[in-house]
Amino acid sequence: MKDNVFNKPIKKQFEFDEEVASVFDDMLNRSVPFYKENLNLQIDILKNFLNDNDKIVDLGSSTGTFLIELAKKSNKKLNLIGIDNSPAMIKRANNKAKAFGVDVKFIEADFLKYNLENSKSIIANYTIQFVRPLKREKLIKKIYESLERDGIFLMSEKLITENKKLNKIMIDIYYEHKKQKGYSEFEIAQKREALENVLIPYTMQENIEMLKNAGFKDIEVIFRWNNFATFIAFK
Questions:
Q1: How far is CA 168 from CA 97, 117, 173, in A?
Q2: What single-letter DSSP state applies at residue 48?
Q3: 92 in a labelled binding site
Q4: Ligand-binding site membership of 86 (annotated)
Q5: pTM greater than the 0.85 cutoff
Q6: 9, 26, 188, 192: which has the fewest Cβ within 10 Å?
């Protein structure tokens, strides 16, 4: 379905409810630059580190796209688990997995409290930015401690920059991208207002320092477009 969530006046802050879940795949493809290309890049890299029976956990798995694509592309027998606190997202993820005939377990839960131990890889695509800053450092530390000795963490985030002029330029470029994808200025403004104080981005350096402070030693940026980036961190 086409994303028309913000073509009317908003009445609440952004949340991953039934209305959003029903159009979320379209929302991602139109709102997150190079979403499919970045997802495929992550999977192509991750596959090289996986063995049979490895546990892969996707935090904020939404409609399940990452794990479903990983299941389709990998020749390994993997333990794939998606965690999301939105019942509407879990329902759609399960329906998609069934339609594609892949074995992925989607769980409705709060990943801040869920046991992530013995994971070979943990994924958080555009998820950590929705965690309140006071809880964010603790979550990243929990992720580090939950990974196996040679575990991998993949994290995609929206960024800000400390240079105010550059930050405005990057935001303007991003909004122009959204216009090219068919969003009106009204829809862009409505979504920006709905996300106020819900999505709280860090700078590139803040994200890297957060990963280092949690214990990760090798950290690389494998994708960046304007104010979006994907990090890979090795335990």
A1: 40, 40, 9
A2: G
A3: no
A4: no
A5: yes
A6: 9
